[in-house]
Write a structure and sequence with these properties.
The complex is a heterodimer of chains A (381) and B (269). Chain A is α/β, with parallel strands linked by helices and 381 residues long. Chain A has 2 domains: 219 residues, P-loop containing nucleotide triphosphate hydrolases (Rossmann fold), CATH 3.40.50.300; 68 residues, YebC, transcriptional regulation domain (Alpha-Beta Plaits, 2-Layer Sandwich). Helix content of chain A is 41%, strand content 21%. In chain A, the strands form 3 sheets. A 6-stranded mixed beta sheet of chain A has the order 5-6-7-3-8-9, with helices on both faces. In chain A, strands 11-12-10-13 form a 4-stranded antiparallel beta sheet, covered by helices on one side. The radius of gyration of chain A is 23 Å and the shape is globular. In chain B, helix 1 packs across helix 12. Chain B is 75% helix and 0% strand. Chain B has one domain. Classes of the chains: A alpha/beta (381), B mainly alpha (269). Chains A and B meet through helix 6 and helix 7 of A and helix 2 and helix 6 of B.
Chain lengths: 381, 269
């Protein structure tokens, strides 16, 4: 965050980012076409950025290697939130380290938003321990929020103001001068590719644009910690990928990301580490890879059967025929998942046993499989 | 204002952060100020000509008011106060509901260093600003129509603004407890409109049925109207004036405390 000489939100980023998945890479040429003037203006920055991992080294130097920042940014022990008799968050423990992308994964109603609101100091902690930047939310709420960026679940943009004005006034809330607020607002609109819409009203913007604007707004105070509550819910795939790309860039500039999602792919794409929440509790913790290694097999064989077959072949019977086929078998309403180290071999074995599925798919295990396993919807343990 | 902050957050002085929230309103106002001022100048003309001059013709002919005060002079300061009150009541109902529930302006602001008290005070300052504009325009119309006996009428403007705030703060508190605008409609139908008509605006409250007179007495509008009228007619009694102003200020401060409690309950959950 600190001391990036060419401006914090400068857009130059390596296109050989090893993180970047294929879809994103395909988007690149288009973006280049959109901003030729920027590349002409600052060729030296482009050169630096296309060198290996300049951005990442900067983050290491500024954040991770500074001793006083080694302490967790967020620290929670036995964190609990009750609304009357309803317990939304039930004694959860977690730490978020500086510079990491940390996720809360879980279905709706798991307690993710309540947790985020407590971290954002807008919801009082019922019991347990919570510190943000080492400060107590109950006492130092304003000081914490001054260093925090928040992207709430529902858009809270001001429809009576223009795109640019939304950012300007937000900067004022943080105590920036008008001129500084304007400078940052313009940079941020560039960063989220909304410069052309600066003077438009907010209302006619698409869902993806509004989301990007909310993210730009959350960055006006140059936060070191960004809280994102379901950042891509309701967006089309293209808008999601663009948003993910921006979040990557922020992470690589050393911004700590803390996000909730109920999309498994989003968690896999964005999070270094995550906790799986279900019914107000944390049921597992680790990196996406660790969770997959720990809770599921390397591959999954997905079998879909025709409706008619299923009716003749009742589920118990089907379960018997699948037994021993794989380490574990999940029977879902629409398909059967067989967890195994070798999907092809299991597929062949199923064929030998006379199973004739309508479709067969062998894929790598994902967090979705982890979640299925953890939330107790398993057929065979 | 300073007093209000002291009440809400012990030891704190008037917060610069609430001024930042006031700026939000001013930024929005940049788009609509012309129409607002146009309405602000045409309303008093219509009212004063229809009621003060038109209706006044008959009132004055039938023996008139005690002391031979022309009807126009009698209702002009009262209307100045009531229109500020009506504007403030409106501003603290639907626009506040929008900020809490429909547009979530408050929610967005609370993710910054601002706190509920800053929002409450920022919006009250905003209402003070708008009612000051309206009242100054009204005063200009009064002077133009020659409807003020005393130069003290100028002081009717701060009286009107204070009365407006004494309505704004408790209505904001009420709005914060509501989920829809049904309750707000009821406040206007059964609260604001009757007060407008029966707080001594158009006729002395002594003409009300005896059981209604104490009701008029406890509403801040009656005190605002009486104080503004005394100033405009140049008939100021120190004791009466002190009682009027104290009554208005009391309701205002109670409203701030109630508003703080209600908004915190609503927004900080």
């Amino acid at each position: 965050m600190i001391g990036a000489p060419e401006g914090l939100w400068a857009t130059a980023r390596s296109s050989h980012d090893p993180w970047r998945p294929a879809e994103r890479r395909r988007e690149r040429p288009e973006r280049r076409r959109e901003r030729p003037e920027r590349r002409r203006e600052r060729p030296e920055r482009r050169r630096v950025a296309s060198g290996v991992q300049t951005g990442r080294r900067r983050y290491h130097r500024n954040v991770a290697d500074t001793p006083e920042l080694q302490a967790p940014l967020i620290h929670a022990r036995g964190l609990t939130k009750c609304f009357g008799t309803f317990t939304a968050v039930d004694g959860i423990d977690f730490d978020v380290a500086p510079g990491e992308a940390f996720g809360f994964l879980g279905p709706n109603g798991a307690g993710k938003t309540s947790t985020m609101r407590m971290i954002g100091t807008v919801s009082p902690v019922t019991s347990g321990e919570l510190t943000v930047f080492g400060l107590d939310p109950a006492r130092d709420g304003a000081r914490i929020r001054a260093r925090l960026g928040v992207v709430p679940q529902a858009d809270t943009l001001d429809n009576e103001l223009s795109v640019l004005e939304n950012l300007l006034i937000y900067g004022r809330y943080f105590g920036l001068s008008w001129s500084e607020s304007r400078r940052r607002a313009k940079e941020l609109l560039e960063f989220v590719q909304l410069t052309e819409r600066s003077n438009d009203k907010v209302e006619p913007l698409s869902g993806g644009m509004k989301r990007r604007l909310v993210i730009a707004r959350s960055l006006i105070n140059e936060p070191s910690l960004l809280l994102l509550d379901e950042p891509t819910t309701g967006l089309d795939p293209q808008a999601r990928h663009l948003l993910w790309d921006r979040l990557y860039r922020l992470k690589q500039r050393g911004v700590t990301l803390c996000l909730t999602t109920h999309y498994m792919d989003e968690a896999e794409q964005l999070c270094d580490r995550l906790v799986v929440m279900d019914q107000a509790k944390i049921v597992a913790e680790g990196s996406p890879r660790q969770l997959i290694d720990k809770y599921v097999t390397k591959e999954v064989l997905e079998l879909r059967f025709n409706r008619a077959d299923n009716e003749t072949d009742d589920s118990a019977h089907l379960g018997n025929r699948l037994e021993g086929l794989a380490e574990r078998v999940e029977q879902l309403p629409d398909r059967v998942l067989a967890y195994t180290a070798d999907g092809e071999a299991a597929s062949a074995k199923a064929h030998e046993r006379g199973l004739r599925p309508a479709s067969v798919l062998v894929r790598r295990s994902s967090l979705e499989d982890v979640f299925l396993r953890l939330t107790g919807r398993s057929l065979v343990e | 204002m300073v007093l209000g902050v002291r009440l809400g957050r012990p030891g704190a002085v008037a917060s610069r952060r609430s001024l930042r929230f006031l700026e939000h309103n001013l930024l929005v106002f940049r788009r609509g100020w012309f129409n607002y001022l146009l309405a602000g100048i045409s309303q008093p003309f219509l009212y004063l000509i229809a009621m003060g001059i038109g209706l006044g013709l008959y009132v004055n002919r039938n023996g008139g008011l005690p002391g031979g005060v022309p009807y126009l002079d009698y209702i002009a300061p009262a209307l100045l106060v009531t229109q500020a009150m009506m504007a403030a009541a409106f501003e603290s109902a639907w626009p506040i509901m929008a900020k809490i529930r429909w547009d979530k302006t408050y929610e967005a602001a609370l993710n910054t260093p601002l706190e509920t008290m800053d929002l409450l005070l920022g919006d009250l300052m905003w209402i003070a600003f708008r009612t000051t504009l309206l009242s100054v325009l009204f005063l200009a119309v009064i002077v133009a129509l020659g409807a003020a006996a005393s130069p003290l009428v100028v002081l009717a403007v701060p009286v009107a603004v204070l009365t407006a705030l004494a309505f704004a703060a408790p209505i904001m508190a009420f709005t914060a407890t509501q989920d829809g605008d049904g309750g707000l409609n009821a406040v206007f139908r059964f609260g604001i409109t009757p007060l407008f008509l029966f707080s001594g605006t158009f006729f002395p409250i002594e003409k009300l049925p005896p059981f209604l007179q104490p009701v008029a007495w406890v509403t801040p509008l009656y005190h605002g109207v009486a104080a503004a009228r005394a100033l405009a007619l140049g008939q100021v009694e120190p004791v009466g004036m002190t009682v009027h102003l104290a009554a208005i200020a009391f309701v205002f401060l109670v409203g701030i405390v109630a508003g703080r409690i209600a908004l915190t309950r609503r927004l900080v959950v």
